[in-house]
Structures are given as structure tokens and as C-alpha cells.
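FORM 7B: Structural annotation worksheet

SECTION A. Query
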Amino acid sequence: MAEETEGKAAGGGKGGFVIALVLLAVIGAGAGAGFSLMFLNAGTPAHEAGSGKREVQIGKAGARSGDGGSSKGAAGEVSKIQVASLDPILVTLAGPQRSWARLELGVILDGPTTPDDAVLLKSMTEDIMSFMRTVPLVHVESAAGVEYLREDIQEIARLRSKGRARNIILRSLVVE
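SECTION B. Predicted structure
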């Protein structure tokens, strides 16, 4: 009798393992589907972007502290931001290897669209191109180096736009 219960206990463990494995596969598939729905469909493809600029209106939640009751931060105030694409930048990097780098960037600008935006974007592209010629390959080989590069480019954009550039989007960086 003791031999029969030992045989059943050894065989029952396999079924539990298979059930746990199937359950983990279902959870993984659900998580993958949820990720793709949330993050991959959030951006617009490049062919739908049109001219490379997109305007977004953001409503302020309420008055900011320290405004002294002014209507500047009142509810219902809408500020516009635009996402503009810079022309692709192709440069040789500094150093003896003479490596090539291609950058595709986007800039998030505060405020409404002005006629000078095209000139501003061209001057940003020119400044970033000049900066990239001073960057050696060693500085962009690691993930931390790419993050520092993005921060430097963001600072260049802020200086050129006199604070209007809110952020830089590094769409692609190819080094050959």
C-alpha cells in the first residue's frame, strides 16, 4: 500500500509542472500583447507625420503656487508644443578612425508655430553638425556615452532656441 502512494506522488508532480508551464506561457503572451498595444501603437509613423511637424495642445491643471492669484496659471490655459524633425545629420567623427555617424533627431518646441521655425531648425542642425565633428568614436560606443551625447545635443538646442526647445528625441544613431 505504501508503494502505491509513492508511485502516485511521483507521477502527480509532472502534471503540476505542465500546468505551471502553460500558465506562464499564457501570462507571457498576454503581457506581450499588452505591451504592443500600449507602446508600439502610441507613436505615429513617419509617412503620416506629413511635414515633420506636429502641434499638441496641453491644458494646465490649475493655478501655480507663487503666481499671486494672477490668471497666468488659471485652469483652461492652453500652451502649444510642436514636435519638429531635424534634417538627417551625416558627419565624420573626430579621431584617427575617421568613422561616419548619421543622426536623426526630433525637437520638442514650446510655443506656437512661427515663420522663423524653419530657420531655427536649420541653425540647430548646423550647430549639432559642428559639435558632432568634435566627438570621438569612443564617446558614443557605450549606452552612457549615447546618453551624454543626447544631453549635450539637448543643451545646444536649448541655447540656439533661447529656451524654446524643451527636449531632443534621438530617433536614430548609426556609426560606421
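SECTION C. Observations
The chain has two domains: 1-42, 51-175. The radius of gyration is 26 Å.

SECTION D. Sign-off
Analyst initials: ____
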